[in-house]
Design a protein that fits this description.
The complex is a heterotrimer of chains A (223), B (255) and C (69). By secondary structure, chain A is mostly helical. Chain A contains eight helices and no strands. In chain C, 19% of the residues are buried. Classes of the chains: A mainly alpha (223), B mainly alpha (255), C mainly alpha (69). Chain A: Its main location: membrane.
Chain lengths: 223, 255, 69
């Protein structure tokens, strides 16, 4: 059931591939603003890199949420989906599609941004790029799961766009803290497996609660 | 037990809840005012200075700061409990309760931040410290404001109630996670615990616990007032609301 | 507390202590007044609606009370 739903999501997304590219472009552009605003000095950029890359990733995840839910809600296909299958499985397929088409590309793009932010400057034997990718790999699914809850709640609201950001950003803070500090720990040559473990724990908690909550919220929005 | 259950069901009736809260309110206000009068007397006049940490008179800020901070947390937890009751038992009045707690809870969160900041200036030498408590309190304020913003964004009240109830529950799961994350993130956190034995000398306990009790009741009174307005707002078309609203005007014309 | 002077100035920290208490008072009083007003205006609204002849009810119902938050 979920695989059919997922296939549908991917099919719909393929028709709107530019819409999917925009958040990724945003990700790169936001990060490239920092050298202009702060300083192009390598050590300074390196210090800022974990936070800047993580905040940019978080914002582009938020930006990309709308297109996975809004049009389906507006043209009534969400209602059809909810009639055919359980709300939780609809939520799971949407969350998974969102991560596959936004979260995963962010992870793949992140080495480029690490490069721009001089993440390996001065290190000859250690490559921090892998740590950055790993932290995003574990963190972005949690962002998708939480974002799905917020998005499903605001579908029927009169205001859209910024409302979901206001609801969800406070919930993103723990992921941001541990995601960025994984990379910071690595930059300071400290052990970072504890941070990664906590990111994994957040993911597990979110996997247990978020699809159910998002499904309930979709049902409320449509009903 | 059966009696308690029946009472719980009766509270689900808007008319009953409105009447009962109307009867309770004067008593709650009476006790609140007495407690606050005694509490203020102790906290502003009769309690001694703090000498051990050299805080002097600024310790008096604690007597409003701690109750405000406690109520900001308790308020959000109460919202989540009422939200669960509303969603599980489909009790409409529970949603009215959730909505009524939000403004008072947000106000308490703001006050906790304000008094914490004013306390911080003479104690730590800065208006704002990114420590665990202050930062979680700030995020809690965003959660409250998010709830209010979400609830006011729907044209259908039942959708607004249910969607924002889910948000309240998701938020309450996140509060401990946020708190411990922020605490881990900044271990500069200054512990000032009330419940720990020996942490607080008895001469500070009297004003603190009186103010705590007074502020709890004041909070309850404010929530009840907002709830009464909410009940009327939601039942404008009911016969009993019409009767309630016109009761005193009729009396005037008859006399 | 030994004197009125000390009560007002709180040993150099008067501004801090009093601003905390004043802000608490103002915010909570503001909520209190706001909620009272809300209930009163709702009551008035229901009243005018009940008094109005039935054909006017439809119009009166459209009046909405503003919610203080």
């Amino acid at each position: 059931m979920i695989s059919t739903l997922l296939k549908r999501e991917l099919k719909v997304a393929r028709r709107n591939w530019i819409g999917l590219a925009i958040p990724l472009l945003f990700f790169i552009i936001v990060v490239s603003l920092f050298p202009f605003a702060v300083s192009p000095e390598a050590l300074m950029l390196q210090k800022l890199a974990p936070g800047v890359i993580w905040v940019a990733a978080l914002l582009s995840m938020l930006l990309s949420l709308e297109q996975f839910y809004r049009s389906d809600y507006q043209d009534g296909s969400l209602e059809q989906l909810l009639l055919m299958s359980s709300p939780t499985s609809v939520a799971i397929s949407k969350i998974f599609a969102h991560w596959l088409l936004t979260g995963l590309p962010l992870v793949i793009l992140s080495p480029l941004l690490g490069l721009l932010m001089q993440i390996n400057y001065g290190f000859e034997h250690i490559n921090h790029t892998w740590v950055l990718m790993l932290s995003l790999m574990l963190g972005t699914p949690t962002l998708c799961l939480l974002g799905a809850v917020g998005m499903s709640l605001t579908l029927a609201a009169n205001r859209n766009g910024l409302l979901v950001s206001i609801l969800i950003i406070p919930l993103y803070v723990p992921v941001l803290i541990f995601g960025a500090s994984t990379v910071t720990a690595s930059l300071e040559s400290l052990r970072y497996n504890g941070e990664l473990a906590i990111l994994g724990a957040f993911l597990m908690i979110a996997i247990v609660f978020a699809p159910f909550a998002s499904g309930r919220a979709l049902k409320i929005s449509v009903g | 037990m059966a009696k308690a259950w029946r009472w719980f069901h009766q509270l689900g009736s808007p008319k009953y809840l409105f009447q009962k809260t109307g009867q309770w309110l004067p008593w709650i206000w009476g006790v609140t005012l007495i407690l606050l009068a005694v509490g203020l007397y102790y906290s502003l006049w009769a309690s001694p200075l703090e000498a051990r940490q050299g805080q002097g008179h600024t310790v008096r800020i604690m007597y409003v700061h701690v109750p405000a901070a406690a109520l900001s947390m308790v308020g959000y937890i109460a919202m989540a409990i009422a939200a669960i009751v509303g969603l599980v038992w489909k009790m409409k009045m529970a949603f009215a309760v959730v909505r009524s707690i939000a403004p008072a809870g947000a106000a308490m969160t703001f006050l906790a931040l304000f008094t914490g900041s004013v306390w911080g200036k003479p104690t730590w030498g800065t208006w704002w410290e990114w420590d665990a408590r202050m930062t979680s309190e700030l995020l809690l304020l965003f959660l409250y404001l998010g709830y209010i913003a979400l609830h006011s964004s729907f044209s259908e009240r039942s959708k607004a109630d249910k969607a924002s109830a889910i948000l309240a529950i998701v938020g309450v799961i996140n509060i401990p996670i946020i708190y411990f994350s922020v605490k881990w993130w900044n271990t500069l956190h200054q512990g000032y615990s009330v419940t720990q034995k020996g942490a607080l000398a008895p001469e500070f306990q009297v004003p603190l616990f009186t103010m705590l009790a007074g502020m709890y009741l004041l909070f309850a009174a404010l929530v009840i007032m907002r709830l009464r307005a909410e009940i009327i707002l939601r039942n404008q078309k009911s016969r009993w609301v019409m009767e309630w609203a016109t009761a005193d005007t009729k009396k005037v014309t008859h006399d | 507390m030994t004197s009125w002077h000390e009560f007002i100035f709180m040993g150099k920290h008067g501004a801090y202590v009093w601003s905390s208490y004043l802000m608490t008072f103002v915010v909570l009083l503001g909520l209190l007044i706001g909620f009272r007003k809300m209930l009163k205006s709702l009551k008035k609204q229901v009243q005018t609606e009940a008094m109005a002849p039935s054909e006017k009810r439809q119009k009166a119902r459209k009046l909405k009370v503003s919610q203080p938050d």
